[in-house]
Amino acid sequence: MTSTAAPERRSTTVPLDWKEVWFTNCPMVSANNIDQELGWCREEFKKIGVEYAYFRHAPENNWYPHYIHNLDNLIRFGGLYPPIHVNADIRRTVLLGATWVSEGGCMAVRARDPFFRMEDLKGKKIGISKSLNTVKNDWWRIQEHMGIETMLRLHDLTMDDIELVEFPYPDDWYDKPEMLVPPMNNPSELWMRRDHKHDLAFRPLETALLNGTVDAIYTQSKVFQHLQEATGRIKMIEDLSRYPDWTIQVANTPAVITCTEVMADEHPELVVAYMKAMVKVGRWANDNKRAAAYILNHQTFYRDAEDTYQGIKDVDMVPSLSAQNLECIKIGKDFMVSHGYIHNDFDVDEWARPEFLEKAAEEVLAEEWERRSWSKLPAGGGLDVEGTRLG
What's the superkingdom here (predicted)? Predict the structure, then answer.
């Protein structure tokens, strides 16, 4: 009998050096995924004499710091569930900002099956994945679980009305030698090595759906959805992103920015430098959505650049800690607590530290005023925003 036990895994990192800052991101909508091509964040760190690089640029760093944040000098911009897990159960981190994308989730079925409503799935089999990798957070499963439960509830159904079929999988690509060498200068290099828009490792339940093992699976709205529909073999019978209720749109989103508490408390200038770049890049992206979409298409799972544009055209690319973003984060965290995906609860409002974003915004505004004032004042003019009311 073949064992399903996960192999022994461990995370490795470079020695700590506060003259270095590492970044990592997920292949989703964020200012960081745009900046990795623009290089504005690297410029901000050069101003203060600090090297800024993708964390996999150093061969000593394997993939796991992206999930367990065991590099003190790492800043992460990515999916919601792993950083919630880290702050709850692994180490204290700081929430710096968030980008909200309404992606909700869809219920996917085979195109020619006679399923047209969620009610048609009563008594049917719905798949759910289970990572055997115990080092990292099982974020795939969490969003599947949350999406399935929500869609059933919207149609007066419960988990008892369907047969949930679990699919354990190794989730071990992080340890494959070809994914560890050579070092990468940019996250886009990862996707150059994998045809990520058609790699079923990113859609582990699709094969089970197409071969008839299950009758339906969860998939993300817009991202993944359009790639799957384009095959002509899959259709969607429910889509949470079409509902006016924004509280059911949490699907490993919002994308959030986190750093370690030690970085925030002992080296706040590093955090501010990063957030300044995110504000600048976010503003640029808001003004140049099609250009931003072209860049994001290299890393995300939208069908193509036009599909990416349609997905981001209404997204505010400047990260924020708005009340709505924080409430969405709380919804995701509360689901993880109530369903046993994290052991410890925490206060999201205390996790959030808005002072870094506020300081970054002040510095961006001051720099912009100084740059513009040179054409209007004899010797230019700085802007003292502290204690000053503008307007």
Answer: Bacteria
Domain(s) labelled CATH 3.40.190.10 in the chain stretch across 20-100+253-367, 106-180+195-248
The CA distance from 83 to 266, in Å, is 20
pTM above 0.85, yes or no: yes
Q: Which of 131, 113, 102 is nearest to 216 (CA)?
A: 113
Distance between CA 391 and CA 380 in Å, rounded?
19
Element (H, E) at 106: strand 106-110
Tell which residue, 320, 327, 186, has the closest CA to residue 248. 327
Rounded to the nearest 10 degrees, what angle do helices 305-312 and 289-296 cross at?
120
User: Which residues are within 8 A (CB) of 379 and not within 5 positions of it... i.e. 6 or more apart?
Assistant: none
pLDDT tens for each residue of 244-289: 999 999 999 999 999 999 999 999 999 999 999 999 999 999 999 9
Q: How confident is the model at residue 172 (pLDDT cuts 50, 70, 90)?
A: confident
Instruction: Tell me the CATH number of domain 106-180+195-248, given options 3.40.50.2000, 3.40.190.10, 3.10.129.10, 1.20.1540.10.
Output: 3.40.190.10
